[in-house]
Amino acid sequence: MNRLGHRWTFAVLGAMLLAGCSASPGRPRANSETLAPNDVLDFGTLYADNCSACHGAEGKGGAAIALADPVYLAIVDDATLHKIISGGLSGTAMPAFAQSAGGMLTDKQVGVIASNIRSVWGKPGILDGANAPSYLPKTAGEVSRGAAAFKTYCASCHGPDGRGGAKGSNITDDSFLALVNDQALRTMVIVGRPELGAPDWRGDDPGKPMSEQEVTDVVAWLASQRAPNPGQPYSVPSNTQH
Predict the structure, then answer these.
(1) Torsion sign, CA atoms 123, 208, 162, 179
(2) DSSP characters over 130-173
(3) What is the pTM of this model?
(4) For residue range 56-85, what is the model confidence (pLDDT) as tens digits?
(5) Which of 10, 43, 76, 206 has its CA 20 to 30 A from that of 194?
């Protein structure tokens, strides 16, 4: 083999050795570095790690409401959605996720979750032509009017006293009411729980949507059913011996 042939052979062998080293076991591949928790900005990862346990895979609902519900996203604005994720929702099981409020996520990560929930699952114009009740109440509710509205719109599924029926759960259960505040109740009355077959404010009495005030009054009635000491089915005598 001539000198030129030797040089070509060594060049090929060198390239093979370098390639073998780059793919050797235990050697990190390109773009395989593990990100620090604060640097994760992928929506799918952030949602799966922080939200899916309660709100379900792909936002389809679970212990908490479905975030992939376009009706919900149509009544809650960006600032409110960001605020809920950042600071939680007092009086509910929704915790604060922002580091500034004691959570684990940076403000940038909270922003990624909030903006993508809307961009991925929202449907602009879904409420066009519908006079949707506002996310926040505009007036105070009245309990007696709420009782009447509950019978009209809710009792057919949840029973006349809210303790459950053939098509709906017990929504005056003291443990349930202890885990949801008035705003959470209002949200559920307006947007329903579509993943559970519960309609929004337009479907409880077909052709007769609930008014803004009726929603507010039903929430007032539900709130009035809260037990002072939830989760205590019986009293313990003070002279009980141990």
Answers:
(1) positive
(2) --PPPSS-SS---HHHHHHHHHHHTHHHH-TTSS--SSS--SS-
(3) 0.80
(4) 999 999 999 999 999 999 999 999 999 999
(5) 43
